[in-house]
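Exercise 7b. Backbone tokens:
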């Protein structure tokens, strides 16, 4: 199975949080052959780690370990480059869903997912609002 993860779900593979078990279960009961990530996940992941440090949910040593593990795992992921097609689609999606709360970075995640709609079997986000947009775009969000 091929899967798209946004950063909120990806991070749960590296740090135990609410819904970590849900993400881990997807990987344990399915044979995942490809994991697609928007290249923005590289920035968002690092930002998430340091936000957890700022909010005292992680200490600096834990943060460094998580970042090192992620760096080691980069080869496992298929990063989808943010190009003009994705940015134009993100702009269109903000026009479509901006009134409902679609934000800039999530529009890039959603645009990437939409681009992968015929290449990925499952689209996973731990963000409820983004998940609602995945569903509105007819992306498969659960098995």
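Sequence design result:
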């Amino acid at each position: 199975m091929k899967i798209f993860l946004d950063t909120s779900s990806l991070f749960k593979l590296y740090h135990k949080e609410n819904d970590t078990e849900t993400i881990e279960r997807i990987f344990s009961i399915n044979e995942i052959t490809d994991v697609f990530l928007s290249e923005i996940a590289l920035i968002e992941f690092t930002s998430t780690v340091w936000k957890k440090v700022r909010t005292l949910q992680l200490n600096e040593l834990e943060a460094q370990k998580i970042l090192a593990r992620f760096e080691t795992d980069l080869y496992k992921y298929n990063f989808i480059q943010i190009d003009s097609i994705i940015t134009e689609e993100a702009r269109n999606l903000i026009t479509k869903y901006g009134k409902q709360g679609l934000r800039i970075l999530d529009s890039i995640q959603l645009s990437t997912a939409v681009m992968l709609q015929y290449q990925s079997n499952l689209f996973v986000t731990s963000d409820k609002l983004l998940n609602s947009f995945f569903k509105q775009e007819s992306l498969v969000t659960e098995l």
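Instructor comment: The chain has a mean pLDDT of 97. The chain has one domain: 2-136.
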